[in-house]
Prior knowledge:
With 201 residues, the chain is of the alpha/beta class. Helix content is 38%, strand content 22%. It contains 7 helices and 6 strands; from the N terminus they run αβαββαβααβααβ. It has helices spanning 4-8, 23-33, 74-84, 101-113, 126-135, 151-155, 161-181, and strands spanning 16-20, 39-43, 59-65, 85-96, 139-146, 192-198. A 4-stranded mixed sheet has the order 3-4-6-5. Strands 1-2 form a two-stranded parallel sheet. The chain is globular.
Amino acid sequence: GLGASSKYLEGYYERYMGVDYSERIIAKARDMYGSNQKSEFIRANIKDINSSIIIPHSADLILAVGALHHMTELDKVIKSLTHVAKPGAYFVAIEPNSANPVIQALRWLWARINLAYSKDQKFFSKKELYELFLKHDFQDIELEFQGFFTPPFAQVVLSPQAISVPLSKTAILVDKILDAWLPPAFKFLSWNIVIRAKFSK
């Protein structure tokens, strides 16, 4: 993506490497966040990552924010990430949850209204994600439902900001309350799933 995580996590890393397939997006990332001397943005297909692009087994953490559901051949993707990660490195991702039929219907509708919204996306169930990482020998796999009211604010630009900013702040507060108090049986209604796991040693 645009490399926004390099800004949010600034001060927590020695080196940040962002990878995206799109030349236009990488150019935008360099323009927005390239002044940070500890960050680097690389235009590449993650499935083709090799030692000339990233030093093998050099990453302590691989962060994938809304990335996997845009990718094909996920087994190849995971193998490539394993080539980049140190043994025992952390993997953290956030992906769309397919369990809520109302949200799935909204996604379907939005794909037909917004021509820029990719129709080639794979929305995951918790079981599918768990099995994917289990198959590749990940350890300490944790999956958690996340985001009930906040995710739409990341997808749609709302104007004017005098209305959208207070609404988004309210959504953040409500999500924090739901994360803490919503019974586990209803958490599948979330927009997203957060995955935390470790690469095998």
